[in-house]
Structures are given as C-alpha cells and as structure tokens.
Amino acid sequence: MKDLNNKTALITGGSKGIGYGVAEALMNAGVNVAITSRSLTNAETAAEELEKKTKGKALGIKADVRNLIDQEEAVRHTLEKFGQLDFVIANAGIGHYGKITELTDHDWRETIDTNLTGVFYSAKASIEALKKSKGYFISISSLAGTNFFAGGAAYNASKFGVTGFTQAMMLDLRDDGISVSTIMPGSVSTHFNGNDPEQNEEKEAWKIQKEDLGELVVDLFKMNKRSLPSKVEIRPSQPPKK
C-alpha cells in the first residue's frame, strides 16, 4: 500500500459534489489538492473549507475545462504551488436531458464540450507532468457511459465517449508509467442537474455518496502499480424497488 503523504492532485470541478468529496478524502490521506471551478470565489471558498477540516493543503483555481489554455494554466499553478503533479481527476461535468427532437444545439455542444472535450483537455495539459511523477489520471464517467436511456442522447454520447477515450488513453500511456482509470458511478447524491442533497437528505440516502467515491479514489491510488482497475463500475447497493 502506497503512502500518499505530500503527493499532489488536481481535480476539475472540485468545489462541490463528487470533486469536493474526492478532494476531502485525498486531503485526509495527506495529499495536497488543487481544485478548479469556473468561479474563482467558489474554488477558493471550497479550498479554505477543505483546509480547515483536513490535514492537507488546498489551492483554488479558476478554470473552464472547455478551454485548453485554462487547463494548461491550472497545471502550471498547481506545479508552482506544490512542485509536482501526481494525480489528475477529470471530474467536471454537466447534464442536459431531453428527446432528440427537443435537444438544442447549445445543449448538445455544452454537454460534449464539458464532459468529453474537457477530459481530453485535462489529459493534454497534464500528461508531461504525470510522466515525470509516474502519476495517475482518473476520469469520472458514468454508468450512462455504457447504458443508454431515452432522453439521454447528449449525456450518453458524452459519457460513452469518456469511457472509450479513457480506456484508449490507458493503452497509450502505460508505457510511460502513467496509470489511467475511469470510474463509472450510478446514482450519486450531488447537486448535479439542479438537485439539492441537503434539502432531500432522507430521500438521497440510498444513493452513492460523494465520500464513497472519495474513498474509492484513495484506494485506487494506494494500489500496487503492477495492478490496474482500468474501468470501475459502482452502483448503489440497495436502490428503491420500482
């Protein structure tokens, strides 16, 4: 089991939800974390909160995953602050749902640009740093990346793409010593798509919690390098009966 103390992680979309939960778990394990958000205020506020309740250091960065230069700058700021980059978690995502007859060009482009192109940009910006550290790249896909559903044309397309992209990237980069995995959660209790888990705590209790995914990421990073769970599906163990 590897010691994570003084390692450094960069998490996109880390100011809330899954990204925040992963950041908290990593910081409790001794990892220094940079989190990005399109809002500098949100990123810095989350970083301050995380530092108060964990033993790690945090850096809030304003960056939009749909912009390659933003991702390159996020990596640069992380290296300037912490001196190294060991882990990248490409987590930022959105969801627009609706029948193909209702799906707008804006909704399609925003979903693909954020969920899929954003992962590509996060990878392109960080690969050289991860080569130096023999690091680990994780994308947060979804069970919607293998199971299609009505009204999910844009979201399914983005997450099917993330799953395929990340698996191919794993093959491309393993000879460089970089580990690559994709995590595919089912229903997660987050603020995704306008949900408010704090206001619906009892109803949300059956879902995967953000700290569960944080624990999973820590476990992946602690594994011996000879083994790689390249694709991890995670579901609620007791979903409501239909």
UniProtKB/TrEMBL annotation:
<comment type="similarity">
    <text>Belongs to the short-chain dehydrogenases/reductases (SDR) family.</text>
</comment>
<feature type="domain" description="Ketoreductase">
    <location>
        <begin position="7"/>
        <end position="192"/>
    </location>
</feature>
<dbReference type="InterPro" id="IPR020904">
    <property type="entry name" value="Sc_DH/Rdtase_CS"/>
</dbReference>
<dbReference type="InterPro" id="IPR002347">
    <property type="entry name" value="SDR_fam"/>
</dbReference>
<dbReference type="InterPro" id="IPR050259">
    <property type="entry name" value="SDR"/>
</dbReference>
<dbReference type="Pfam" id="PF00106">
    <property type="entry name" value="adh_short"/>
</dbReference>
<dbReference type="InterPro" id="IPR036291">
    <property type="entry name" value="NAD(P)-bd_dom_sf"/>
</dbReference>
<dbReference type="InterPro" id="IPR057326">
    <property type="entry name" value="KR_dom"/>
</dbReference>
<protein>
    <submittedName>
        <fullName>SDR family oxidoreductase</fullName>
    </submittedName>
</protein>
